[in-house]
């Protein structure tokens, strides 16, 4: 068997998330259909570094799959792209060792969230959250400091009684240029909705609806108190996945 690693970008606007769902259009479903056209006698299942939700985009998502088919590693990129729809594109393909796993071998992930404080744009609505009002960037940057380091993020992710909610956030940068605010988060892993809840909380601080102390109180409660603010999915991008 050969293990193939691929780096893929996709526009999440017209997908019901990454993971296969019955009768719904998903990124995984479209990629597996494309690979089936190449490996007709095999049931190929791809394994991604993580799932993205409906309307969330991927810039350098990573997946792998095993196949009996022999092909030069770079030819996989061309072959899969030939059968993919125009909102998914394989950026690169590699032949990797059997011990590589897209999810379990990952050491860091980087997410970006884009928000516009400018007037509403119908052309950007699927790609940048159209907030349309000014935010206090300085207050958000100050509040963002509380998330750096290892924390129990149970208050800032989807409820999962069986999942480990302790994660380490290495960077949380907030950059504003021409009315577009970019939140950049790098961590050793992210639970479902974690980025959107963190960004949602920071937006509330920027709008002066809550303060830094309130966010700190939520974080320190370790799930006893939940962050009720969740940023919309359209502005979220899985930017890159890192490996040793």
Automatic annotation (TrEMBL):
Q: Which CDD domains match?
A: PseudoU_synth_EcTruA
Q: Return one Gene Ontology term, BP aspect.
A: tRNA pseudouridine synthesis
Catalysis performed (reactions): uridine(38/39/40) in tRNA = pseudouridine(38/39/40) in tRNA
Any idea where the Pseudouridine synthase I TruA alpha/beta domain is? 7-104, 143-244
The catalytic activity of this protein is classed by the Enzyme Commission as 5.4.99.12
Q: How does it assemble?
A: Homodimer.
* HAMAP family associated with the record: TruA
Protein's UniProt name: tRNA pseudouridine synthase A
The species is: Faecalibacillus faecis
What lineage is this protein's organism placed in?
Bacteria, Bacillati, Bacillota, Erysipelotrichia, Erysipelotrichales
The encoding gene is: truA
């Amino acid at each position: 068997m050969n293990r193939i690693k691929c780096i893929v970008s996709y526009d999440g606007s017209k997908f019901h998330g990454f993971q296969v769902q019955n009768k719904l259009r998903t990124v995984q479903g479209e990629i597996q259909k494309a690979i089936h056209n190449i490996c007709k006698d095999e049931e190929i299942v791809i394994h991604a570094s993580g799932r993205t939700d409906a309307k969330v985009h991927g810039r350098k998502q990573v997946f792998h799959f095993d196949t009996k088919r022999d092909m030069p590693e770079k030819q996989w990129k061309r072959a899969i792209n030939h059968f993919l729809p125009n909102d998914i594109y394989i950026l690169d393909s590699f032949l990797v060792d059997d011990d590589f796993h897209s999810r379990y071998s990952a050491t860091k992930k980087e997410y970006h969230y884009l928000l516009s404080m400018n007037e509403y744009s119908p052309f950007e609505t699927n790609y940048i959250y159209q907030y349309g009002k000014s935010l206090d960037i300085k207050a958000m940057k100050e509040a963002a400091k509380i998330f750096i380091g290892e924390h129990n993020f149970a208050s800032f992710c989807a409820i999962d009684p069986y999942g480990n909610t302790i994660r380490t956030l290495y960077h949380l940068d907030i950059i504003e240029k021409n009315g577009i605010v970019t939140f950049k988060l790098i961590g050793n892993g992210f639970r479902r909705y974690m980025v959107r809840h963190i960004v949602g909380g920071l937006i509330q601080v920027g709008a002066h609806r809550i303060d830094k102390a309130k966010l700190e109180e939520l974080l320190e409660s370790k799930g006893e108190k939940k962050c009720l603010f969740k940023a919309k999915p359209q502005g979220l991008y899985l930017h890159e996945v890192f490996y040793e």
